[in-house]
Sequence to fold (842 residues):
Amino acid sequence: MDLTAAGAAALDRADELAAFRQRFAIPDARLIYLDGNSLGRLPLDTRTRLHALIDEEWANQLIRGWGNGWFEAAERIGAKLAQVVGALPHEVLLADSTSVNLFKLCVAALRAQPGRHIIVTDALNFPSDLYVLQGVLQLLGHPPDALRIVPTADGISVAPAALAAAIDEQTALVMLSHTAFKSGFVHPLAEITALAHARGALTLWDLSHTVGAVPVELHAAHADLAVGCSYKYLNGGPGAPAFLYVHEDLHARLQNPIQGWIGQLDPFAFEPDYVPQPDLRKFLTGTPPVLSLMAIEPALDLLLEAGLARVRAKSLRQTEYLVALWEQQLEPLGYRLQSPRNAQQRGSHISLGHLHALGIDRALIEELHVLPDFRAPDNLRLGIAPLYNTFAELHAAVQHMRTAVLEQRYVKYQDQRPLVT
Amino acid sequence: MDLTAAGAAALDRADELAAFRQRFAIPDARLIYLDGNSLGRLPLDTRTRLHALIDEEWANQLIRGWGNGWFEAAERIGAKLAQVVGALPHEVLLADSTSVNLFKLCVAALRAQPGRHIIVTDALNFPSDLYVLQGVLQLLGHPPDALRIVPTADGISVAPAALAAAIDEQTALVMLSHTAFKSGFVHPLAEITALAHARGALTLWDLSHTVGAVPVELHAAHADLAVGCSYKYLNGGPGAPAFLYVHEDLHARLQNPIQGWIGQLDPFAFEPDYVPQPDLRKFLTGTPPVLSLMAIEPALDLLLEAGLARVRAKSLRQTEYLVALWEQQLEPLGYRLQSPRNAQQRGSHISLGHLHALGIDRALIEELHVLPDFRAPDNLRLGIAPLYNTFAELHAAVQHMRTAVLEQRYVKYQDQRPLVT
Fold:
């Protein structure tokens, strides 16, 4: 592999997705943005759509906007998102935040299985998913040890066999982050789903770091439940509403604990007793935040235009390229690879550990026009969004990471942890 | 009272808030918009703010936006909203939807009072609030009759004495819509709060039809809990995030059942065990929808600039004016007043019943440039937003309502119920 700047330029010339970068607002071309796994860039079509939504729909249609596309947006956008996660159109909805959706589905799954109360997860899961699970178990009267957290031996991965050993006939739910937020490790979804089903448990996947970057086939794998956010690789905008997936076989059996206005069979009948929608819409609760919700749609259209298979193929090339650069140019400077070596086992970000990771992160941002993110205690995450990140950016970022260490740029920042990392 | 068009013009000339109408986007000046109690108009400052948020903050600051005002927005805007509901700055937060907040606070209130499980509400409450309450009781293992719904004798109001008779030593919570969504009746908040406290129960108020139109003094009344939406008289935009209020005396005692990322003591420490914030922030859960959240702030600034006392004073003048017009010009045509006659007992909308209300509603919208809303089975709601509605609009709307009946404009619409009313 040619690891020179010229080599990067050649890879960009050969990139069939290269033109998609021009579909995003990139006001500062110097900035190497490697945090699309936290907040994706603004698609130009989204900007156009939002301006129209504000200036024409809110201002002029006013309340009539609900009858002209707002009210069904959660379903309409859900049906598009279904294509990205291998679901049927009526198996996905946009609603609330990832945590609220996780709460709803987790409570529903436990209540549907009265004889079981154990939740199996692992130490790679996003901490706030654990908080939700802890809260649900307490709410339903189960002891804290009903949450089984399978440890990770290497800090990077957890093997299916380790999970299998924790799943038993008391297990109600196996709840995992499909792609780990820190290491980027990707669980084999179909294999673990089959494992869980063999012991009579349901599965609930957090796809936040998967969706838009790593293909999954939820329906074909007969995955039971899933949630995820839409502001990372989906480019839905800051805090855009999350999604939830429920396999159609479970629609009748599960009950939403947060019964609300939009999940009612006929919201405008104003009947005093709750009668849920017969389908997935029962999991809707309150009025959705329309501005944030509608922003997701043009971004999703852009992704579907590019095609997830091509996005994944480029992501694999880019993470392999970055790992090769790391091995040659960063490992000698104390950077450790904290993501899987096997490209098939990782998502679209690479984690690098370093003794001075926090200071390096700040120096990259403040002085070197590189924007990665930092995850405590020592982890730099380099998120690659194939729709807009170039090979040249990855090459340049690595040179800046060398500079940060060789010139000890990290020293002045190393005790400064900002509010948001 | 001079009920001619000239009289309306004179009232508008004398209106000290008249200039605020120019602070809103009003692209169609012919439209008489009387649905600000469902979706408030777009303030011009909000449009400017949103364009900057999209084009500069999302596009250019990207993830750094979280460190530059997004992360604390729920608290910052909450502190401003606190001024509108008579709360201390740290007693109000913006988060989620009204229903999700109602769920959180209702579960918290019941869990904090193990010996009590009855919820007292009334038949004027918004139906989806009842759905949430029904769901909470079921989730916590209480029977359906733990929800006591005090009936309304006249369809318009419920007297404190009727509520008092339903509150006993088993009552955990008195949960009411402060301003009724249909009749506009306003409960005496301090009186009912004192009633509940005398029997050891907590109070939870839905302020959706109150906030921004009717002053309340939550803290002074020692009201325990409240929720509400921000897209009606607050003009926060379609589906803007809701708010929640918890009296400071309860911050330590109550627990959020939906434990999440933002309610954690240190979200960026990524610790596996949930440790809640010691204050109200524990009731935050997931990442907020930033576009929809930030839209609330300029609208709130505008309201604070106008002053809620002046807004209420104008609202009282306008609802009295509309009732006078009704009595002279609409009652003879079969319109019935379905709101309280006493101005002090009502919020900022007037409900009029009519045998042909649905057809009249459609004729007003489709043919007569008047936009009220319809609430089944026979109720036209005329929402008055004092920041932008004029007396001339009210006068003209009444003439159109006469036309709709006198010319039988309703006939062609009377069997057509649209999706969203």
